Amino acid sequence: MATPGLIPPDAWDTHIHIFDPESFPYGTPRSYTPKKALLNEYPFDTTTCANLVVVQATVQGHSAEPLLATLDGNGRPDQCTHIRGICTVDPTTISDGELDALHAAGVRGVRMHEMSWGHGTQSEVQAISDKIKAAAARVARLCWVIDVFTDVCTWAAMAPMIRNDVDPRVKLVADHMGGAFPGDEKLQDFGVFLGLIRDGLLYVKLSGFERLYHGHSSGMQTLESALKSVVAAGPERILYGSDWPHTQLGVSRKGKSDQQRLNEVEEFRHVEDRLHIETLRNWIAEESTWTRLWCDNPRRLFE
Fold first, then answer.
1. Which residues cross the membrane (predicted)?
2. Given pLDDT bands bounded at 50, 70 and 90, which one contains residue 251?
């Protein structure tokens, strides 16, 4: 349970997943098979977030049906004020009418997961850039988010494209700290990444911490320098995401065959979200910045 008063009222968690394979079977091929995780299982007592953004997971394929079923409000927990969605779309085939219908249902963005974690082919910078530009051309009129999970060096390499070729109505969001692993804050590319934040061209989700510090004995402390730099670069550009229900790390799947990835149902990891939140509070002392993280910034993107 969260410390009373730690998180502001009307807070947002901008990165969760919902899995209901009985109602909506996973796509194939896929890199993993998670167990069920429904909205009523979300840890409201820990985050106290009344507003949630559900992100379509890679295993759910390209159909928005699972996401739309969550957004339609049936069975919505009493603690929930707003539920919004980020989905996977093919900008070359989806119609404007279909995009409008998604928007009316509560979708506010497009997701691009561009980290292979050793399974499949890792996308090249140009390919990711082309995907972003193609999506931006379709969703700019809706002022949607384009939510991308890739690494700091890729963000730096895409900086000229982001500065010159993306419609300013689109809000680019870097998932999971921009993929900044411990030590990346020393790279020149990290400085370029910060420049995008500083110039108002990029939002960053403070999320997925243990995906980044995994294997480091100092845990989240290894991310302190990078996280504080991100916050300082753009206090009006930071968002909180729990990454619930905490699917397994890519390293745990190393060596698995494609068939094992289909057949072996994975448990979720136990992650101390409360400790992560308390650590964030220690690192973000300014009250106005803390409120921006939880309320003002996500409301601007998703309400």
1. none
2. confident
Structure tokens at 164: 């010159």
Query: Which amino acid, one-letter code, is at 96?
Result: D
Residues 225, 226, 227, 229: what is their CA dihedral angle, to the nearest 10 degrees?
Answer: 80
Spatial neighbors of 110 by CB under 8 A, at least 6 apart, are: 86, 87, 88, 89, 91, 135, 139, 144, 145, 146, 147
Residue at token pair 């009523």: 40
Phi, psi of 244 (to 5 degrees): -60, 145
Say whether the peptide bond before residue 21 is cis (omega within 30 degrees of 0): no
| 206 within 8 A of 243, measured Cβ to Cβ | no
Per-residue pLDDT tens over the stretch 143-193: 999 999 999 999 999 999 999 999 999 999 999 999 999 999 999 999 999
Residue type, 212: L
* Domains located in the chain, CATH noted: 12-302 (3.20.20.140)
Q: How far is it between the farthest Cα atoms of the chain?
A: 50
User: Is residue 26 within 8 Å of 54, Cβ to Cβ?
Assistant: no
pLDDT tens column, 47-67: 999 999 999 999 999 899 999
At 186-234, the pLDDT tens digits run 999 999 999 999 999 999 999 999 999 987 878 999 999 999 999 999 9
Residue 271 to residue 35: CA distance in whole angstroms: 16
One-letter amino acid for residue 61 of the chain? G
Question: What are the residues whose beta carbons fall under 8 Å from the beta carbon of 58, sequence distance 6 or more?
Answer: 30, 31, 88, 113
